[in-house]
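Help! Submission page says 'invalid entity' but I think these are all valid:
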Amino acid sequence: MGHAAHEHYTVTGVDNRKFAMWTLIGSECFLFGTLMINYILNKASTKINDPAIAKYLIEHGKKPFIAPTDVYDIDLTTISTFILLMSSVAMVLALDGCVRKNLKNFRLWTWVVIVFGLLFLGCQAYEFNHFIHKGLTLSANNFGASFFLLTGCHGAHVAVGVMLMGSVLIRSYLQPDWFDSVVVEVLGLYWHFVDVIWIIIFTVVYLLVYV
Amino acid sequence: MTGFFKEVWSWLTTVDHKRIGILYGASALLFLLIGGTEALLMRTQLIVPGNDFLTAKAFNSMVTMHGTTMIFLVIMPLSAAFFNFLTPLMIGARDVAFPRLNALSYWIFFFGGVLLHISFVVGQIPRGGWFGYANLTSPTYTTDLSVDFWAMGLQVLGLASLIAAINFFVTIMNMRAPGMTLLKMPIFIWTTLVTQLLLIFALPVITVALVMITFDRKFGTGFFDPTLGGDVVLWQHLFWVFGHPEVYILILPAMGIVSEILSTFSKKPLFGYSVMVYSTCAIGFLGFAVWAHHMFTVGMGPWANAIFSAATMLIAVPTGVKIFNWIMTMWGGKIRFTTANLFAISFIAMFTMGGLSGVMHASPPIDAQHHDTYFVVAHFHYVLYGGAVMALFGGIYYWFPKVFGVYLNEAMGKAQFWLYMIGFNVTFFPMHFLGVQGMPRRNFVYAADQGWNFWNFVCTMGAYLTAIGGFVFIINVVYSLWFGKKAVGDDWNGRTLEWMIPSPPPVYNFAVEPTVDHLDEWWHRKYTSSGTRTDVQIEAHVDPSTIHLPGPSFWPLVMGFGIFVLAGGFFLDSYGATISIAGMLIVIISGYAWAFEDNG
């Protein structure tokens, strides 16, 4: 992160840092695209590989298979999706506070972004835990493995976003006149992208199994 | 002694793109020695039938590490050396968009190479091929850590390439001198730009695939294990979706270098510049649509085979256009046969031959005959060695005076060129014969009555000849750095902006930001439209302290080391997680230190 004085002349008129973030987002599209294709290919691979889990399921009168509809809790996921969407709104307001050099609003909405991000991660931790209790561990079957890989990678992106926004918050306390809105805008791009990816995951992974 | 440490420290903390370019180049040439030695060991094993010079396991390790090293630790970083040194100079910029990020790329690359080679120290050298096909990589068939070294090593190297790719993409798009529109950029900048796009879009795919391997091995998932509901062919698809654009990542920079050299030494503008640009873009785009031609024998069915066959034949069109344009560039020109130009001209011939056998493979029935034989080995060495490596050596001879202020010795250079040219063809041309006679790739031994004795002997002799050429090059570099002819600035009567400043370039590159009116701007400044020489001179030195430059930083090195520790932790079961977390902490701490560092 640089200083306000860093805004140089550029050929496109777009700040270098912003341009770099857009480029990274292009790359990330392929990352999540590959993970999503992997999930779509593996979601029908529901037979349990782990003999201990298979035995446990049979003892409880179930077949040794776990499919998406056996574990998904659409209510919980809808709530966590709403939280993440609202965090993007807060992100816009935080940027607005930064641009207007309104420290109170800037800090308030940055706090909201961080708290909503953490709430989303909490929902995901609860969900993962719940799945594991139902027998869907990482090595249970390839549906589970590809699900954890995709949503886990998204969760890691949210966690990185929370850390970056945390750094912005710390900076706003250490250096109250720091209003480098380009940095906040670049982080906002990242945050909104991670949000958009979640909307696609929510549709492809969660909603489509009920169609 | 303090002076010495000061010098070392200044290299460890440098953010100057020119020094980072030199670091990339030196590292790549060091790895070239290692990769070349691996090739010589393989050829020595195959010199006579039934040889026991190497064990089967050692031979597999040599095959794997030769391929992995040459692609990820030689050609890619050697190209990166040119990207680094030349991009800001050619576009008239003071540095890249993110100088410290650039240093970080280098250090991650460096530690990635170290990580891969620790496998030699602990005796668990990767041996599953550079393509690491499933199920060779499964915990059932490789019980030691060799696959983990390979997967984590590539993961780290991929990160380095991705960061560099974003940096150079932004640099070229955003930092060009005033007046340099896209179609006034030197052709090397165009090939660099398209290469970065290929990296940006291809690397994430291999990242995911390597994560899946690691999960299969460490956490018991079954992505590539059919007994667990997985699919071995999925690996092939993921690998080649990355792997084929990777081929163009290796060749496009070489094509850019050759275009610059041929134009300078033919004393003519590049023929069909804009068509060259469009061809480069077309190759980059089609490069993503041909991956399954590596998999014609898998049994994908006639539709997939037909479509990928057609796409592969299609990509030969822009490539053919380029070959035509290079020849037309030389046509009627005042050609100077310098060492650099000899390498560039040989590139056209060798690459054309490799390209022709490539078009043969585009046909699935023919490919079914050639698949996994030495014919394929001959094909890709003609494009990647006769092509990319020869072009990169041409680039070294061409820009050496710019980088170090001294010319490489031409007599030794020509000796190296002919040793390389003859050695290369003696090694790889007979492999076409061996291939169609049915000799399979990657076999460590063959029987005396299979009829392959003579050509195998010839191949090995060619490899030794090339090795002598390599020694000539090393002697040449050492000799020239001490006794080489001094270079001043416009060392070859060049055309592009890097030749309008002194050699070696001052730390600030351009004292005055150049304004560009033409393609080949420097040429147009030197000569009027009627061809008379103007009185324009190379830019004079100014006091560097009057020009603001980004300060050095220690944090890229620390962060690179943190990533190394983070990745290295995956190798140990008991303390591994602790080590990885320590590495992550180093990354986070250096990240904060970096963010708050006053770097001007």
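Support: the input was valid. A stray whitespace character was the problem, and the output above is from the cleaned input. Chain B has one domain: 12-552.
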